[in-house]
Amino acid sequence: MQKSYQWIKDCHYRVSAKAFIRNSEWRFALCREHTWKWDIPWGWIDHGEEIHDALKREIMEEMWLTVTKISLQPIYTYIAESSWIGSPKRPICVLIFKVEVQDLNFTPSDECTEMKFVTAKEAQDLDLYYPNGKIMREIEKQEAYTFTKVSSICYNETEYKNCNLGWTCTDIC
Question: What is the extent of the structural domain holding 52?
């Protein structure tokens, strides 16, 4: 007799969290991965791990940067298919959070060999993982629409409840 939950193994999602980091010139942080493609800094969320803890761990492991703030909710989400060479294609759920770090003193690692800051337009000329260019353009449009940089994001529940910027935090968090 087949157990009712066995179907899960054929359609499960791997979940990753990405860090939307900006520098003082309001450019996006990208990391060159060991595959030589550019990507928004990210990492897998391990089973049983809190999302924010996973993001802090991955940023430290791959970039040696200390995370100081993470938005309460993702600023962007999408579903894609994994595209790593030699791996079976699997569905992935990606959550992008606004992240602030203590400083930008990047240290290369095996998984993140280089970091650079670019505009969405400059990113078009780079070998990016899909759909990073599209995401960066959409976030820039969102910022233009709200007439503010996405820096007024709520970082905790108190800020979320007290947010009175003319739009709700759920619009951008």
Answer: 13-171
| pTM summary value | 0.76
- Is 165 a domain residue? yes
DSSP state of 171: G
What mean pLDDT comes out for the span 16-42? 90
Q: How many CB atoms lie within 10 A of CB 92?
A: 16
CA distance 51 to 59: 12
Q: What is the pLDDT of residue 83?
A: 66
- Check if the beta carbon of residue 160 is closer than 8 Å to that of residue 72: yes
3-state secondary structure of 146: helix
* Structural domains counted in the chain: 1
For residue 165, give both structure tokens. 């910027």
Q: Is residue 146 in a domain?
A: yes
Q: How far apart are CA 158 and CA 53, in angstroms?
A: 20
| Cβ count near 118 (within 10 Å) | 17
Amino acid of residue 153: I
Would you report the helix, strand and coil content of the chain in percent, each value rounded to 5? 25, 30, 45
Residue 122: CATH number of its domain: 3.90.79.10
Asked, for residue 84, whether it belongs to a domain, the answer is: yes
